[in-house]
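Reopening this one. Same input as before:
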Amino acid sequence: MAAENSAVKVTAVHVSIGALAGIGAEHFREHFVIETQGTLAEGADLRIKTSDDPLAPDSHSVLLQSVELEK
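Same output, byte for byte:
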């Protein structure tokens, strides 16, 4: 996605984690840091919004909301 948009760096990634997604914000952050090593997203600011509503439509999901790029 970043390379396809002529980006030189991913500066921020915004995700939302549902109440029943099965992963907490800090655990997700740990995986993000590991998986982005050596990529354009390495060092990007990870902004996580969590929900505590198990009845929300996306309560089982981790959703990518947006990505900020440096061109």
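So the earlier flakiness isn't reproducible anymore. For the record, The radius of gyration is 13 Å.
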